[in-house]
Amino acid sequence: MTDLTRLTAAEIAARIASGEVTAVEVTEAHLARIEAVDEKVHAFLHVDREGALAQARAVDAKRERGAELGPLAGVPLALKDIFTTKGIPTTVGSKILDGWIPPYDATVTQRLRAADVIVLGKTNMDEFAMGSSTENSAFGPTGNPWDLTRVPGGSGGGSSASLASFQAPLAIGTDTGGSIRQPAAVTGTVGVKPTYGGVSRYGMVAFSSSLDQGGPCARTVLDAALLHEVIAGHDPMDSTSIDEPVPAVVEAARSGSVRGMRIGVVKEFAGEGYQAGVMQRFSETVELLRELGAEVEEISCPSFDKALAAYYLIAPSECSSNLARFDAMRYGLRVGDDGTKSAEDVTALTRAEGFGAEVKRRIMLGTYALSSGYYDAYYGSAQKVRTLIKRDFEKAFEQVDVLISPTTPTTAFPIGERADDPMAMYLADLCTIPTNLAGNAAMSLPCGLAPEDGLPVGLQIIAPAMADDRLYKVGAAVEAALIDKWGHPLIEEAPSL
Amino acid sequence: MTVTELVSYEDALATYDPVMGLEVHVELGTKTKMFCGCSTALGAEPNTQTCPTCLGLPGSLPVVNATGVESAIKIGLALNCEIAEWCRFARKNYFYPDMPKNFQTSQYDEPIAFNGYLDVDVDGEVFRVEIERAHMEEDTGKSTHVGGATGRIHGAQHSLLDYNRAGIPLIEIVTKPIVGAGEKAPEVAKAYVTELRELIKSLGVSDARMEMGQMRCDVNLSLRPQGADKFGTRSETKNVNSLRSVERAVRFEVQRHAAVLNDGGTIIQETRHFHEEDGSTTSGRVKEEAEDYRYFPEPDLVPVAPARTWVEELRGGLPELPRVRRNRLREDWGLSRHEMQSVLNAGAIDLITATMDEGAPADQARKWWMGELARRANEDGVELAELPITPAQVARVCALVKEGSLNDKLARQTIEGVLAGEGGPDEVVAERGLKVVSDEGALGTAVDEAIAANAAIADKIRGGKVAAAGALVGAVMKATRGQADAARVRELILEKLGVEG
Fold first, then answer.
1. What ipTM was estimated for this complex?
2. Is A203–B301 a contact, with Cβ atoms under 8 angstroms apart?
């Protein structure tokens, strides 16, 4: 019998729809896989076995009744633990939310449930999505299925690792500076940061409100597109949600082509700090795109070299305010409430114990950057850089349809290597951050293994806002050509664990 | 704290010129909160009108209440403000347990309305108060600190938090520095808050009941030596929550500042608490440095950009504003500015017009509300409108007087009965048997008896001293226990004594 965990989401959905397998069988297979390998990988913080099976039974009943099933009905999914789930713990990778059971579902959670996608559980992440390795989780790191001594990227390392270890065919991530794309790149999976406002942020615990964006993660471009369509679209509960039709991403993923397309290679994303094997695979992909009929040219985006600095002012500033609500008064951890201390002391003690070092670092950075007398120099200047980056993109998209670059300068680094060097860690997001600052869409998909370490390399495709479909059009073409070249999808080379 | 002997108000004003700034928070009467769909109804069980958004739960997001924005624009327009073409909300960051997100969603350097004015009447003169801005924000929850002596958080054993109020829309209206009020500063402050309250009520955007906390005032005050240009250091007296308190707080702070300055001291910029019992203020927390709220534009909300056509539509739909209406009524009623001011201060304008709408003549309606009823309200310590009598009932009493069924004294007794809960005017009249004695026979007998009993006075009247008739009228009224029509009694007396009236 086929190993159900090796199938794509589209294949699983088709088999359930045809009655070849049941949703319960699919769910049980994935739960068994989690049982077998997650002790090693640690992708999940919480597995909702009973909830998942109940949902699967409902899907099967629906099919038996002859009711119409959605395109992903019965397909299991791993949900990043940043989305609220009614009745199921939501930790955001932090001790500060210890014991909190959300009384409401995030819009993304609601849409997944409405589409009969089976939520297997909640995945590990850097605390409050601050990090690029998942080492900042209060609940311990996640291993990269390609090499368990290496990081699976971050902040959504649990989601990317669950895909690469075949614990789930679909996952949801969030991307504030690269937290979907960088983990996808280093685990040989596909991740998409939709246009800002494309996917509702309601119920997605905020890190940096103007940058955060939820998005789909999968092992194939088509699976990502199917999931994209389920979670995207206007939500009246999120004021920043775009009230326009969702770009036709599934159609684009089914008709991948780059023929006649103009593609720009971002000139600034190369040089010092870029691993040779990463650049080699990237160059080969550029050649491949030419062979497939694209016009490829180099495009300069001069403001991109200021993006990291601007990001590390804006994101901490917003987070310093967003995380102020964790004060021990209404939910989560409460430390020192022994009747002798003031409310202020309890808040301070709780925050001291409940937040990890990186979270504290960013709260302090942000508090400083917003202080009177510093605001203009820091937050104000960063906003100006943001405008410059937007202009760079606008100019670029006058000349080309999409931009491409490596997703991240290096392949997965060893756990612990950058843990004490925040600057080195921050560089992992060098190529992904400009998109968050400008609010447009981007995808990472695998483009090979680096010769020197045999680890996956990611190709980043960047499209203008609300042109998310272009990512899938190009991504599907690259994916098909590479499978042709290798004779199989790259993910099949991942160790079986 | 050193207690400084206050300087008399007159002495303070001889040396110093007061400068005021008034910040008024108005709770809007929208059905739902500013950023979520929760009810704003008062009096619900604690924490029953809450949701993830107004509790600030992780992941929740705000959505702007369109009616709140509309109300803010109406207030701005009525205050002669410019309305922003584009403005944003901002986060005001500070920690306090009753603030769910530990930031207040407010507006900072981009208020919805700015640069306006409000004209107020003080002692028959018009004083223009310049408005700096009116901006939208959300209210906090409510803390009840239990176990401390002062009811404040310091020293409390524990605190109870009610988030029903958290997220209720507020409009904060800030004046520019009010200069030139001189000795009338307390009256100007009171007149401004009074006028603002009337304005808000007339717009229908809030009931603006200060005693319910729907309108709250902070009084900033500083003194500068007479003739000086530079403002002195100000104190900020928080939560001055009645019209009378506004006046008292200004007066007290003028006297206190003067005392400190006269002693060669310096005023510290600080928050002060107002005490209703004696009208004094005491020091709250000292602001050693300006509190840093780290304002930044609220990234969870899109900018508010009211279309000009909409703004003009709202401008066109504004009701007649209170001061304009008052001036019109003043002329209609033939009152002096001073008299009209008393009517306004008593909160009687709407009651009088409502009584007139029920058919009473203006002078009668005004007479009752500003006389007997105002006296009762004052005695009972309630607002005029809270008395248990309706304009329709007052109008009915006026009608009974006009048709001659009641005289002034009986009318008074009828009103007394209504206030005592004995029913409407007609019921009270019936129950108490309050009818003017108009039976000519009975009255004639009473008059005859009075003339017989007071022969000397009767002679005087016959001799032409008509004024002496009052004594006989009094005797008849006494005999009829006040139920006679005094005018008719007088006619009968003169008639019987053969004298022309």
1. 0.96
2. no
